[in-house]
């Protein structure tokens, strides 16, 4: 199980969510969860029932995905307890890993 992403306040009021690695990000931000965020950005705040209808998915599955997105800090609730996606853009920066250089051994 993953823990809530760490949150940092950046320049110009930006919020930065940090995940331990790509696998953790991919576990939290699945294609269906990304569709939930896009729908909220496009349609505005809504409750889980309306959201499940908007994305044409089962209520229980949307409830579980919404809870995971809230736990990760990717989604919030407004004063009326409706779900909101307060992000204009989600940007991922991945650190590369250096692979060992292989040397070819020539045999005569």
Helix content: 25-40%
What is the string of SSEs from the N terminus onward?
EEHHHHEE
Strand order of the largest sheet: 1-2
Question: Which class of secondary structure composition applies to the elements?
Answer: alpha+beta
Which homologous superfamily in CATH is the superfamily? Winged helix-like DNA-binding domain superfamily/Winged helix DNA-binding domain
Strand composition percent: 5-15%
Question: What's the helix count?
Answer: 4
Low-confidence runs: 1-11
Explain the overall architecture:
It is a single chain. The protein has 108 residues and is α+β, with helices and mostly antiparallel strands. The protein has one domain: Arc Repressor Mutant, subunit A. The chain is built from four helices and four strands. It has helices at residues 22-28, 31-43, 48-54, 59-72, and strands at residues 6-9, 15-18, 76-77, 83-84. The longest helix has 14 residues, at 59-72. The radius of gyration is 19 Å and the shape is globular. It starts with 5 loop residues before the first strand and ends in a 24-residue tail after the last strand. Residues 1-11 have low confidence and may be disordered.
